[in-house]
Amino acid sequence: MQPDRDIWAARDKLPVERSWYHDHDGRTDLVRVALGAVWPQIHVRIRPHRSDIEYQGAFSATGRLYALGLEAVVDSAEVTTADLRRSAIVRALKEWEIVGRRIAEQYLAGTPPEKVVFDTRSPTEALRMLSQPATGRGSRSTSRKIRRGGDHDELLRQIAAAYKAELRAGNPRPRLKLAADFGYTVPHIGWLLSQARKPLRGQPPLLGPARPGKAGEEPAESSPDAQPIAGRGAVQPSPFGPDRRGEAGVQPIVAAIVTSARGVLVGRRNDRTPPWTFIAGEMEPGERPEDTAVREVKEETGLEIEAGQVIGERDHPTTGRHMIYLAGYPVRGTDVFIGDEAELAEVKWASLAEADELLPGMFEPVRDYLERELGGTA
Q: Which sequence spans correspond to the domains of the chain?
């Protein structure tokens, strides 16, 4: 929401609440999003299929989840520790907060109610994750042993074997199942799968190369005998460091796509390879992508941000490093400065037109996101 928009006038244009009985995989979840009564905040309530417990989240105007609650909506029910262990509570609430904000902006722009639309793929996946049963003690112990045992090669072998088993079983979205079984986020499972598709200490890849699948579905695995393609030519310098394809244990790079009313945050590199880039850095062991985004932006620009949704992921075409592009929003002002003078010569806010000029060949999902966020910036 633009800072100069009258809040009370905006509330008058919004419905008090939007609710859906959302059907997926033979389940029906109730989702309610409060808009008009609390705007520019948004409150989300989710009641999973045949559950007596409702999950509640309250979000600030910047999309920050500042309150989380569970409520027994049937007199005979009570909240248990199993409800607290249910996976993906926060992700599901955040995905539907984004839906609510997209809907609200369309109402405020004058879109007729019958023409208000939103993309259901990511919110539906979040509901599927929320539908996973709480992880039992045995599987939690196994998952913890895998994560902390330091045997990265063995983890990749287990991930690859489980992935193949899910494909054989006909599961169109095996990453969701693997995320629940192994105790990782879906993006991290994707990164582990990308590692399993690379040679492992001189041995052939555990998985064949991925091929593009249909929108919203898991990319299919090709023949396990497929070998990585070689001879693509010389590798050009990259802002993300040397080519480290095939190295086990290499962490993903997180690029923070930070937007405000002033534009998108970019930095000019001293080594000019390339001249301009988004604020980015390597995940440290034990970090989540959102932790990395917050840390890197603070270190390199002095700006405090709140991390948002994952915009997209890919293996970088030059280095092969796995990239996670994450939305971000300032929480205390928009003034920035050069926090790492050895790496950056300048940091600034750029309009969409400037970003197109400074960062040619931008990753398409990021460009689409900026079009939605910054379409009106000068």
A: 7-130, 137-211, 253-374
To the nearest 10 degrees (0 to 180), the angle between helices 137-148 and 152-168 is 130
Domain 253-374 CATH assignment equals 3.90.79.10: yes
Distance from the first to the final alpha carbon of the chain = 16
Token pair recorded at residue 132: 């996973």
Question: For the whole model, what pTM was predicted?
Answer: 0.40
CA distances in angstroms from 73 to 28, 108, 194, listed in the order given: 16, 32, 42
How far apart, in whole angstroms, are the C-alpha atoms of residue 134 and residue 83? 7
Q: Are 297 and 221 in contact (CB under 8 A)?
A: no
Q: Which residues of 88-113 are buried (b: 16+ CB within 10 A; e: fewer)?
A: bbebbbbbbbbbbbebbebbbeeeee
Within a 10 A sphere around the Cβ of 266, how many other Cβ atoms? 22
User: What confidence tens digit (pLDDT) does each residue in 250-304 have?
Assistant: 788 999 999 998 999 999 998 887 899 999 998 887 778 998 999 999 988 989 9
d(CA 196, CA 153): 9
The secondary element (H helix, E strand) that includes residue 311 is strand 305-315
Nearest to 303 by CA among 340, 276, 248: 340
CA distance 252 to 187: 10
Asked if 53 and 77 count as a contact pair (C-beta separation under 8 A), the reply is yes
DSSP per residue, 228-287: ------PPPP-TT-S--TT-TTPPPEEEEEEEETTEEEEEEESS-SSSEEEEEEEPPTT-
